[in-house]
Amino acid sequence: MFGIARLAGIMAAKRTPDLIPLSRPLAIHNVTIDFELNEPAGLITARRTVRAYERTGVEMEAMIGASLAALTIYGMCKGSDKSITIGEIKLLFKEGGKSGTFNRHIK
In whole angstroms, what is the distance from residue 63 CA to residue 60 CA? Predict the structure, then answer.
């Protein structure tokens, strides 16, 4: 299941300009997604990393990829539980681009 969701997330990150109006194609050099399963709590956490050697950030590519990976997991699991929810999708860290570095955990 995670392999298919990982592939969907990578494909989505690369197709971001087709999904977000006025965004431009970027030469993405690395896309990873790691899943953390917490069975007792019934949670799956997906953490994306997208790297590009561009003058702009790749936040949208990372968040689109994480969103589609989560939706793919939902699609595969909805037959057994339609009450599944997709929670927060948020930027944790970025560096580069016009706005510089952002780190959610260090303020």
Answer: 5
